[in-house]
Amino acid sequence: xxxxxxxxxxxxxxxxxxxxxxxxxxxxxxxxxxxxxxxxxxxxxxxxxxxxxxxxxxxxxxxxxxxxxxxxxxxxxxxxxxxxxxxxxxxxxxxxxxxxxxxxxxxxxxxxxxxxxxxxxxxxxxxxxxxxxxxxxxxxxxxxxxxxxxxxxxxxxxxxxxxxxxxxxxxxxxxxxxxxxxxxxxxxxxxxxxxxxxxxxxxxxxxxxxxxxxxxxxxxxxxxxxxxxxxxxxxxxxxxxxxxxxxxxxxxxxxxxxxxxxxxxxxxxxxxxxxxxxxxxxxxxxxxxxxxxxxxxxxxxxxxxxxxxxxxxxxxxxxxxxxxxxxxxxxxxxxxxxxxxxxxxxxxxxxxxxxxxxxxxxxxxxxxxxxxxxxxxxxxxxxxxxxxxxxxxxxxxxxxxxxxxxxxxxxxxxxxxxxxxxxxxxxxxxxxxxxxxxxxxxxxxxxxxxxxxxxxxxxxxxxxxxxxxxxxxxxxxxxxxxxxxxxxxxxxxxxxxxxxxxxxxxxxxxxxxxxxxxxxxxxxxxxxxxxxxxxxxxxxxxxxxxxxxxxxxxxxxx
Length: 558
Fold this sequence. Notes:
alpha/beta; Rossmann fold; 3 domains; nine-stranded mixed sheet; five-stranded parallel sheet; elongated
């Protein structure tokens, strides 16, 4: 139906500040569409398949989420099969407010027909074979050994690429939803089930938008690998997965990483809203909790300095929460240098937490998938403001760049944005002479250290759950650097320990927060981070200059 025009009947839905068009039906242009409260749109479509079930993977995910809402009360974990299954799984995880991760599985294709799946291999070395197909083709697993070894290597690389050093979400005793964009033979889904069960899942559900009826029946059989199978459509004439999608373009690795990072931010935001009040109260009760605070040989402060910082950290943590809640940020725009002749003006959006008297300015570099609205960074910024430190949280990407997933992990690009913002701060009345520090979270820590390596005017750097291993030029960093990591964030802790040894040109400290994980969402953990950061910045800001008044008339222009 080349060049046909269609009317799409649907409605606009508000989702996280974004208006998404949700079609409820489509029909030829000459057909009348009922009114009601729906809005009718005329859309010209170059190629339209009458039996299209999903506009794209996100649409498939929203439709799938609608029938999975019953699992929301079971504290589920959502696992997407990369790469195509992750955009579908991301929509389900968002609807169920559930954590999102991946389970990496690779198909093992037949020698002369690679699209024909003889089996699959998954992380942990799990192998699943289609024995009946092997018999039909008169093959044995040993006949495809080169392919098997190659796919095993790919699995190892993909796990490292997607999780970036993190361990898989804890599945022990959990309800786990395994999601893909569709199935053909079901080999990859079978391998995924074996891995999930080995990791201790209590109940394993396979959820897919479309698959052949026979495949679904086999997976849902009493002796099948899954406890339940949910499939929206099982066409008699299946053809191929992509046939049922309007847009089935390939999903790249940067998109997978972006969706995983975005989901981590959303899950924490939801948890933070539910528990922030409780955390502020119980955090004071934990004021006696020890902080594992390690000092590098370069630190000349000695035991007395170490003990003083620990006492200050515990004291400041207990008293900062209530007052910092009154610090309201000022919205501002940070103009970027012109890209060239005729280039339009570009700005980064920021929020400035400005105390009456400031000891220095801290610029925050957020992690991948996050923004200046990160609840963790804003909590830290309020504490710093209450302790007399100006904090600038800003988006590292412009609104026009937000969909550029490749930029989210471009450390040199993000470091340059941080440098541009630093140069802007140096021009602002009331801030221009103050010491400057960087606070980097996750991948933002890599950008912060990369930016600091190219400057001699950065007084201190703090990394929270950071990835300093992504930095360029660690040995060139001169700013005193504090690395804060959760005790149970073991993979990131190892990366920080290695990176610390490479920070040979500056004072370095490593603070390990007991019982904390990557997001520091445990009670009192984020308060520890804020207190330690405050001590660190004040210590090295004071070494450079005394506190200066920042009067309303001197505030940066908005």
